[in-house]
Design brief:
684 residues; 7-stranded parallel beta sheet; binds magnesium ion; Rossmann fold; OB fold (Dihydrolipoamide Acetyltransferase, E2P); single chain; 21 strands; binds adenosine-5'-diphosphate; globular; 6-stranded parallel beta sheet
Length: 684
């Protein structure tokens, strides 16, 4: 048992938890006793029914009570394979053979000559048999049989059985868990208190009490998420920002200077943004739009407005390639208006920096575009009123905070992403964000013809590529890693280049280039330039080409080992082609043939919308990288996060609470919990 109570103690204070076990528990995110109590089961198994042997049915999961005799251990002819056999005899004289595969230790642990429970699924070999059953003395507190039994998330070296026993020992400490949900809410929603909920979620009395416990625990997470977001939103709305009046002639002039007509979706998004800018409180808006839907122009319009009103704006991109590209685009759009655009990158020579920094500081440069170098540099702005961030989730949490802290007046904040946030999530974890969606492509875009190519189709795909190159088009080949990794069996980009140059396209060898994240910035730029100018026909790259890169002449995207990427990311790759007038193609390769992989990748073939793919990805793979922060701090299941009733309940209660007690003065426990929650969570 536990030497001294106190939930912040490390798990090693529990007897039987060695440092080896501590390490395994850490992999499940469990460091302290509190963490251990909050390690919720993945699911439960109903073994509460105790059935006499005579009534057993094949396939049923049940518990049987009786005495065990004749325990034996056999080694089979296959090496390292053991069978532990025993026989259970129940009260009515029924005989149930038991067998455990490769669990030789069962022989020493199985209690003989006393009443035991065994539990599991009934197999049938001319009569009932139990394979690998759970077992325990019938006299103690049931943990593994004769009840609804918890199944824990597994990690190497930890079994559910071990976890059950330890959790059971810790349960008396559940009373020390802090209750932080206001009593009023608990009683209105008839929810169990926290200690009860935690006890019930591990070892439920009944399915009904389990459900009530789960509902309460999901509610508390959702509630905290909402509370954090809504408080932030309220706080933001208290702050002052520069109001940039909507200027209709300026907006007209901007639109008519464009070489194309804005789509309706772009218009609506721009309108929403300009409305936000006109208010004296800081905007916090996310602009979502599929790759190529034209987000940059919309951002440029906001920057144009800001500059016309005499204020400065900054645009941050996750990579130098993208920053340059944005700078080119924004500059060419704004040149007719005499608005100049500065560019600041990590690779900007020291000599070029002082004049740029001075122009930002004295306010003479209205727009600067750059990478995180901009944040790291001690940049001061005279009149910063708008911050735009492209693909914000690619910036670290600390960087994101720094982006926002750049000026004394709170700048309006616009972030752009091509990775859509499912609507339900937008209302929960991202509830402090207003969202504009560009759900329409500029006219004349043809869908990218997508194919999942089996290994045997490779030669044909190469022939096809040769044809495209002969017709003057260009080709991307994306590979997961830079260097050979035997263990992963991953086709590396550098290897791929060798293969293409030497074996597949020797005639094109000098026109095959390589781009990856470990190249120096100048090298990357040189490669991109050669590709953009058409000198290179084939560009082999790692995921650095994922975002933004705009080469309208490229018509083929070939993705190696596609199973290693999420759908949203694959969709991003695909978005690198189909940006010009040519019919474009995306070939997806994988060595894996399992159904799950194939089905997942087939989704790309049948869906062209990034939004749909993101939903599918979310359902198939969970939160992945985009929601990395989310995944880390929370215990909600995917179903919970998509549960609109749960979301609404939490929203309502949060609204009610904040109206009544905006500073949470009457709720110290909740304040405390919220602070902790924000720390792990660290969302914007
Ligand atoms: P993304 O949303 O991926 O950032 P971009 O802003 O880079 O998309 O736009 C992709 C391409 O489409 C650019 O070359 C841009 O000039 C062009 N574009 C943007 N809006 C339109 C439009 N309404 N009609 C035609 N082309 C457009
Ligand atoms: Mg873009």
């Amino acid at each position: 048992m536990v030497a001294t109570p106190g939930l912040d103690q490390p798990v090693t204070v529990v007897s039987g938890i060695s440092t080896a076990y501590q390490g395994r528990l850490r992999r499940l995110g469990v460091e302290t006793l509190r963490d251990f109590l909050l390690l919720y089961p993945r699911k439960h198994k109903d073994l509460s029914q105790v059935t006499p042997v005579a009534q057993l049915q094949p396939g049923e999961e049940t518990t049987v009570r009786g005495r065990v005799t004749g325990v034996s251990l056999e080694k089979t002819s296959r090496r390292n394979f053991t069978l532990t056999r025993a026989t259970l005899i129940d009260e009515g004289g029924g005989v149930l053979p038991l067998v455990w595969f490769n669990q030789p230790w069962v022989r020493g642990r199985l209690p003989v000559d006393e009443e035991v429970y065994v539990a599991g699924e009934i197999a049938w070999r001319r009569g009932p048999v139990m394979e690998n059953p759970e077992y325990e003395p019938a006299a103690g507190v049931p943990r593994n049989a004769a009840r609804i039994v918890p199944i824990y998330p597994l990690t190497e070296g930890l079994t559910s059985r071990w976890l059950r026993n330890k959790v059971q020992e810790l349960l008396p400490l559940a009373g020390q868990l802090e209750e932080f949900l206001p009593a009023e809410i608990r009683s209105r929603r008839s929810m169990p208190d926290r200690a009860t909920a935690v006890r019930e979620v591990h070892f439920p009395e009944s399915w009904a009490s389990l459900e009530a416990a789960r509902r309460r625990l999901a509610f508390e997470e959702m509630f905290l998420m909402q509370l954090g977001a809504q408080r932030e939103k309220r706080a933001r709305q208290q702050k002052a920002a520069e109001a940039i009046p909507f200027d209709q002639p300026a907006a007209r002039a901007f639109v008519s200077a464009l070489p194309f007509k804005l789509t309706d979706a772009q218009r609506v998004a721009a309108w929403q943004i300009l409305q936000d800018l006109s208010r004296p409180m800081p905007m916090n808006r996310l602009l979502e739009g599929d790759v190529g839907s034209g987000k940059t122009v919309v951002a440029a319009m906001a920057m144009h407005h800001t500059a016309q009103a005499g204020f400065q704006s900054v645009l941050l991109a996750p990579t130098e390639i993208l920053a340059r590209q944005h700078a080119d685009v924004v500059e060419s759009i704004l040149r007719p208006f005499g608005i100049s655009v500065g560019l600041l990158l990590g690779s900007t020579p020291p000599g070029q920096r002082p004049p740029l920094l001075a122009a930002l500081e004295d306010g003479s440069l209205p727009i600067v575009i750059g990478t995180h170098a901009l944040i790291e540099e001690g940049v001061q702005f005279a009149r910063l009123a708008l911050t735009v961030v492209d693909e914000q989730h690619r910036f670290g949490v600390a960087q994101r905070a720094a982006i926002r802290a750049k000026s004394r007046r709170v700048p309006h904040f616009l972030s752009m992403t091509a990775t859509p946030i499912p609507r339900t999530l937008a209302k929960t974890a991202f509830a402090d964000l207003d969202i504009s969606v560009i759900d329409e492509m500029p006219e004349g875009r043809k869908p990218v013809s997508t194919r999942l190519v089996p290994p045997a189709g490779r030669p044909q795909a190469y022939e096809f590529i040769r044809g495209q190159v002969a017709a003057g088009r260009q080709v991307f080949v994306v590979c997961p890693l830079i260097q050979e990794s035997d263990k992963l069996g991953v086709r590396s980009a550098s290897q791929e280049v060798e293969k293409l140059r030497l074996q597949v396209f020797p005639d094109l060898a000098s026109r095959i280039g390589l781009l990856h994240g470990r190249l120096k910035s100048a090298e990357k730029e040189a490669v991109m330039d050669r590709f953009a100018r058409g000198e290179l026909a084939i560009l082999v790259a790692t995921s650095v080409v994922e975002v933004g890169v705009d080469i309208p002449n490229a018509s083929v995207m070939m993705i190696e080992d596609a199973d290693r990427f999420g759908l949203a990311q694959l969709h991003q790759f695909r978005g690198r082609v189909g940006r010009g007038p040519h019919q474009s193609f995306c070939f997806i390769f994988t060595e894996l043939e399992d159904r799950e992989t194939v089905e997942r990748l087939e989704a790309l073939v049948s869906h062209q919308s990034g939004f749909e793919l993101a939903e599918i990805d979310l359902r198939l793979r969970g939160f992945g990288d985009l929601y990395g922060t989310l995944q880390h701090g929370h215990r909600l299941t995917l179903e919970d996060l998509l549960d609109t009733a749960l979301i609404k309940d939490a929203q309502d209660e949060v609204g009610r609470l904040l109206d009544r007690d905006p500073a949470l003065r009457g709720e110290p426990a909740l304040r405390h919990r919220l602070a902790e929650f924000r720390r792990v969570f660290a969302l914007d």
